[in-house]
């Protein structure tokens, strides 16, 4: 899956992304509360400087900005990043956001207290080389002892069962119900899959059917832990949905201080 393909996927999805949520603003607040709590546990009350390097349309970044943190967003999709900035402004907040590849973050060294990569964005990187590049870049822009926060799907069991679809999600809009679901087509290696993302959007007496396609890697917990450790992070901790209240497993880790 090329960079242009992933960018195209999110450029197309940016306008409709919020339709996956029953209440997008409520989800922003909930996610900011949980993720902000994990940040407080490691770094104290703050506010903190945060880079959301896969900000999408701002689901996590806007919530954290509204909670008082100084947040900058970046995303491979310029359409998504522009919408994130606009949505933040519409809610009385400020979210500078730019188009950027997480493997080549355009920020100075040691610029942030926190780097966030949420919503299963990291598995768009399909090789160990790309994953290492992204994690080393995240480490580079973090201050010593700064916090890395990654959220991903629970792939350990998924790699064993290889599901072919996700259950439909139904959200209410003023025009009716929106139905979202995914089809997964596994590669022979059993680690990667092609995803078809369907949205059925009401349009009078009919539906608009929108289909977007992308490819993911499904790294297991031990695999991702090893990559994060190799990139120079310590205190690597996994927080399950049951323990954190978040909808995906969350990895937190701290940048090991640079050698003097």
Automatic annotation (TrEMBL):
Keywords: Methyltransferase, Transferase
One Pfam family named in its UniProt record: Methyltransf_25
Transferase listed as a keyword: yes
GO biological processes: methylation
Species assigned in the record: Streptomyces diastatochromogenes
Protein name: Methyltransferase type 11
Domain Methyltransferase: 50-146
Alphabetized InterPro entries for the sequence: Methyltransf_25, SAM-dependent_MTases_sf
One Gene Ontology MF term: methyltransferase activity
């Amino acid at each position: 899956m090329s960079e242009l393909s992933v960018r195209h996927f999110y450029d197309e999805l940016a306008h409709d992304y919020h339709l996956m949520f029953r209440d997008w603003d409520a989800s922003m607040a909930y996610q900011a509360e949980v993720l902000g709590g994990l940040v407080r546990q490691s770094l104290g009350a703050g506010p903190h400087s945060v880079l959301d390097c896969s900000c999408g349309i701002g689901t996590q970044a806007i919530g954290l900005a509204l909670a008082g943190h100084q947040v900058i967003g970046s995303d491979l999709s310029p359409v998504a990043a522009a919408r994130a900035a606009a949505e933040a402004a519409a809610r009385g907040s400020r979210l500078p956001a730019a188009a950027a590849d997480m493997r080549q973050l355009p920020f100075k060294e040691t610029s942030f207290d926190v780097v966030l990569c949420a919503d299963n964005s990291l598995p768009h990187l399909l090789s160990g080389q790309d994953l290492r590049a992204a994690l080393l870049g995240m480490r580079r822009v973090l201050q010593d002892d700064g916090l890395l926060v990654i959220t991903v799907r629970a792939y350990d069991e998924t790699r064993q069962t290889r599901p072919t679809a996700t259950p439909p999600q139904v959200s209410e809009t003023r025009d009716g119900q929106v139905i979202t679901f995914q089809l997964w087509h596994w590669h022979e290696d059993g680690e990667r899959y092609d995803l078809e993302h369907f949205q059925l959007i009401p349009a009078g007496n009919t539906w608009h059917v929108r289909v977007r396609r992308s490819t993911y890697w499904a790294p297991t917990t031990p695999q991702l832990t090893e990559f994060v450790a190799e990139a120079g992070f310590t205190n690597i901790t996994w927080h399950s949905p049951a323990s954190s209240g978040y909808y995906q497993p969350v990895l937190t880790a701290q940048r090991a201080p640079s050698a003097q």
